[in-house]
Amino acid sequence: MRSGLSDLAPGDIDQLAVLIRARLKLMQYHPELLEGCLAGTGLSLGP
């Protein structure tokens, strides 16, 4: 997940949408990203 959107210069909005969908799809396979975001806020997934 290192190659972020920061270095992107899309030609049009459709190209940007395709890239964002692909990156979001990859995030589905990395639950540690969600855990890291929650840890940064002090929240947890537990009851």
Mean pLDDT: 80
Our measurement of the CA-to-CA distance between the termini, rounded to an integer number of angstroms, reads 29 Å
Number of helices: 2
The share of residues in extended strands comes to under 5%
Q: How many strands, which pairing sense, and closed or not: the largest β-sheet?
A: none
Helical content (DSSP H or I, runs of 4+): 55-70%
Sequence stretches where pLDDT stays below 50 over 5 or more residues: none
Cα radius of gyration in angstroms: 14 Å
Instruction: Count every beta strand, where a strand is a DSSP E run of 2 or more residues.
Output: 0
- Give the CA-based shape: elongated
Order of H and E elements = HH
Q: What is the structural class?
A: mainly alpha
Task: Supply the number of structural domains.
Answer: 1
* Oligomerization state: single chain
Descriptors for this entry?
single chain, 47 residues, mainly alpha, 2 helices, 0% strand, elongated
Describe the structure.
It contains 2 helices and no strands. It is mainly α. It is elongated. 0% of the residues are buried. The mean pLDDT is 80.
Helix-strand blueprint:
Layout lengths: L12 H15 L3 H11 L6
Task: Summarize, please.
The protein has two helices and no strands.
